[in-house]
Design goal:
Elements (H helix, E strand, L loop, with lengths): L6 E2 L16 E4 L7 E4 L4 H10 L3 E10 L10 E11 L3 H19 L3 E2 L5 E4 H8 L12 E3 L16 E7 L7 H11 L10 E5 L5 E2 L8 H9 L8 E7 L1 H18 L7 E2 L1 E5 L4 E3 L5 E3 L10 H7 L9 E6 L2 E8 L4 H10 L4 H7 L1 H7 L6 E6 L1 H8 L30 H6 L8
Parallel strand pairs: 1-4, 6-13, 7-14
Antiparallel strand pairs: 2-3, 4-5, 5-19, 8-9, 9-12, 10-11, 10-12, 14-17, 15-16, 17-18, 18-19
Helix pairs in contact: 1-10, 3-6, 7-8, 9-10
């Protein structure tokens, strides 16, 4: 980053609360009763302010704090990222930095084959259609195809009125009945949530056998072979449900098939950029909310915000994905105060909310702001991938457990009543 003329700047740890998509860690203020700092989920506002103030290229190895449930690839509580931002930069400018820094770092510390830039660009919608997930593992050759139209007149009740997704597995017909039964068992697990998993085989003779073969018409068979590429000796798995659930289930089935059939390419790091994320999504309560980063520039600018269905608006947001893991996230930033107010208004914030919660950024934008963009590759996750570890805790010193507890240092823990009094806190343990 130094060689690329970026300036290293450290930003504050005691910061303000910001809607970054996760719960904040709050720190009560002794000097300001009833008020709280928030540990930064990312240095988002600070780095944008640095661009406004005249720094051209900024970076830091930034500690980030998010009160999220842990996963195999996400340490609870805290992580580090290579946070960087550039003025007068486009999405492609950010990609070029990532394509130079990330492959260099991987190649230096591994003997595996490392993709070199430019990396493949996959629109979010296409990723969900082909892989059922927005962080596809490109080492897995299987793809998902839509068979809804193919079966719109089917007599098979499980498919009627449903979205039908299909995964064609070359040479899959060689598997015995036990394999298909085990896959159906997996599909019905709580993790996946499918009601079942339909399948059929195409034998060497071209005959469709097993599973739901009796419900597949001659016209269906011809289309499966000619239009969808189902060849002799292949097997086909079908997932039928409402649209979003069918996509999700098909994505999990694709991953599991890749593992069980040993289809994952070995000793290679495959990268891609997922682009064109939706700006907004519906929350669990049915309200419009930001789907990614609230400070991103909507594609189409103010005109799109004023005239389009919010759920159809795309953003200049992108993720870097490596071997099925999200490894970086970034965006072209919203640098226009009028667009900023409108974008937050759609998500339920008033202009007063924006001025109060993001006053420093909003006020700075009044002075004229250079277009700017950036990203933040996750350092811990990079190390996990390079080390070929299966859990991020394997590469972290003093890791916390699944309940976000540090059993060595016994944190979190209770504190003395005097300490709570100092910060004007009373506990309600009900």
């Amino acid at each position: 980053m130094d060689e690329l003329q970026f300036t290293e700047i450290q930003t504050p740890i005691l910061a303000n609360s910001s809607p970054e998509g996760a719960r904040d860690y709050l720190v009560p203020s002794r000097l300001n009763p009833g008020e709280f700092y928030a540990l930064p989920q990312a240095p988002q506002q600070f780095k944008q302010l640095l661009m406004v103030s005249g720094f051209n290229k900024y970076y830091q190895i930034a500690p980030c704090f998010r009160d999220e449930d842990p996963r195999a690839d996400r340490a609870p509580g805290e992580f580090y990222q290579l946070d960087f931002e550039m003025s007068f930069a486009t999405q492609e400018d950010v990609f070029k930095v990532i394509e130079e820094v990330v492959p260099y770092t991987f190649a230096k510390y591994t003997s595996w084959k490392v993709d070199k830039g430019p990396f493949i660009r996959i629109p979010y919608k296409e990723a969900m259609e082909k892989y059922g997930i927005d962080k596809p593992d490109l080492r897995n050759p299987l793809i998902i195809q839509d068979g809804t139209q193919l079966f719109e007149n089917t007599e098979f009740n499980a498919f009627k009125g449903k979205t039908v997704k299909m995964i064609i597995v070359p040479e899959g017909a060689k598997q015995g009945r036990k394999f298909f039964d085990k896959m159906e068992e997996y599909a019905k697990t709580e993790e996946v949530g499918a009601k079942g998993l339909a399948w059929t085989k195409i034998e060497e003779t071209g005959e469709f056998t097993g599973g739901i073969s009796k419900f597949i018409t001659e016209e269906n068979k011809q289309q499966l072979q000619n239009k969808y590429g189902a060849e002799k000796n292949s097997s086909i798995f079908f997932i039928a449900d409402e649209f979003e659930k069918a996509q999700k289930i098909a994505g999990l089935i694709r991953i599991e098939l890749g593992k069980r059939l040993d289809l994952i390419e070995k000793n290679v790091y495959k990268f891609c950029f997922i682009v064109d994320f939706p700006m907004y999504e519906l929350s669990d309560e049915g309200k419009i909310d930001f789907s990614h980063n609230p400070f991103s520039m909507p594609q189409g600018g103010l005109e799109a915000l004023e005239n389009k269905n919010p759920l159809e608006i795309l953003a200049y947001q992108y993720d870097l994905v490596c071997n099925g893991y999200e490894m970086a996230s970034g965006a072209v930033r919203n640098h226009d105060p009028e667009i900023m107010v409108k974008a937050f208004e759609i998500a339920g914030y008033t202009k007063q909310d924006v001025e109060e919660r993001f006053g420093a950024l909003y006020n700075a934008f009044q002075y004229g702001t250079p277009p700017h963009a950036g990203a933040a590759p996750g350092i811990d996750r990079m190390v996990m991938l390079i080390a070929n570890a299966q859990n991020i805790r394997e590469v972290i010193a003093f890791p916390k457990n699944k309940k976000a507890r540090d059993l060595l240092m016994k944190a979190p823990s209770t504190v003395m009543p005097e300490q709570l009094k100092d910060v004007h806190i009373k506990l309600d343990m009900q």
